Structures are given as C-alpha cells and as structure tokens.
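Quick note —
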Amino acid sequence: MNDYELLLLENQVCFPTYAVANKILRRYQPLLKEIGLTYTQYVTMMVLWEKEKVNEKDLVSALYLKANTLTELLKKLKAKGLIEINKDEKDRRGIVISITDKGRELKKRAVCVPKTIAEEHWLTDEEFLEFKALLYKLLKGDWDK
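Predicted structure written out below.
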C-alpha cells in the first residue's frame, strides 16, 4: 500500500469504528429517552446497579472517563434523585457515589434497553461475543504512548 492509499477512508480503522459507534448510540437514544437517561448517565447507572456504592476514582476507571466529565454527569443524576454523593470516609479528598431507592427502581425499567439491543445486534451470537472481546482488548491497551 502506498502512502496515499493510507489516506483512503476505506483503509481506516477509525472511521468504521466511529460510524458504528454513532449508529449504536443513535439506536440507544429513543430507548434511553423512555427511561429519562442519556447514554453516559445510563452506563454510570449500570455500574451503580451492579455495585450500589462506588468511589469516584473507580467509577472514572470503569467508564473510561475523565473526572471532570463525570462531575456534571453526577450532578444531573443527583438532581434526578437517582444517586447520592458523599465524602469518602477513607479519603476525605474523594467522594463516594451511592444509588438511591429511586435509582434502584429505575433498574426495572432499564432492563428493556439491553434486551431490545440484543434482539437487533445484526451479528451472530458468536460474532457478537468475538466483537465485544476485541473491543475490550482495545480498551485495555496502552493508549498513552
């Protein structure tokens, strides 16, 4: 492949990744609108549905977000009554995010989201599992070189 062929859109890994991510997120939007969450709020709540309580550092790590991105997101979830934010008893500089009863109740309504997406995922079950495994492999790579 010559240098100019490297610039062809069809030879890029970034473009189909970007385009598929946009298509997937657009498919999630109407489902999440029904339960009153944005996508980043939804994935944050998924962590809390699983763990009930998490410190900010662990949440940042789990979601691959920056702490400053998370701050506004958490304020909005707190305003909706879905979470509580408190000082970390072990590290007074840190915070702990806890799910509220209202947040737990939302979980019942949110179950329809992954069920709907799973029914539409356009890949065989084997392809889907392989694709997901490759995505997580990429996520865990060292991107800070």
